[in-house]
Amino acid sequence: MKKDNTSMQRDIQTYNRSLAPADREICETLAGKIDRGLPEAESKIWHAHPVWFLDGNPIVGYSKLKDAVRLLFWSGQSFDEKGLNPEGSFKAAEARYTSSAEIRMKDLRRWLKKAKAIQWDYKNIVKRKGKLVRLK
Q: What is the C-alpha separation between 132 and 39, in angstroms, rounded?
């Protein structure tokens, strides 16, 4: 069942509108594709950036960096996908974009499918004292 994300969607739209035109285009493209690829996800601004959650677990989000827009999949290192680079010390992986033309829609759709199927339990990472457990 899709949750009512109306106010949350407005927050994400506000985030996107705050960016320079090229970055806004990237973020609006990503948000639209993520919404279509994860219709059951809850989306909100989390730690100042748009993030999509399944059952309270962060799945995918994006953020404006100094020189690019970063698309981050919390469990992305487990996807075994070219185009996603390891990020941080857990299981996250990222892709960076400087133009919306760089977004490969076929790859993004595949990554979103894997994001539903392959999840690590970030929701309970503090409770488990930094230990990640595979959910699906």
A: 25
50 falls within a domain: yes
How many angstroms separate the CA atoms of 111 and 50, rounded? 17
Examine the pLDDT at 43 and tell me if it is beyond 80. Answer: yes
The 10s digit of each residue's pLDDT in 75-104 is: 999 999 999 999 988 899 999 999 999 999
Number of folded domains in the chain? 1
Residue 125 lies in a domain: no
pTM of the model: 0.89
Whole-number Å distance between alpha carbons of 67 and 17: 18
Q: Which residue has the tokens 């010390």?
A: 89
Domain with residue 97: its CATH number is: 3.90.1150.200
Buried b (16+ CB within 10 A) or exposed e, 71-104: bbbbbbbbbebeebeebeeebbbbbbbeebeebe
Residue written as token pair 């899709």: 2
Is residue 127, in this structure, part of any structural domain at all?
no
DSSP string for residues in 71-115: EEETTGGGG--TT-EE-SSSS-EEEEESSGGG--HHHHHHHHHHH
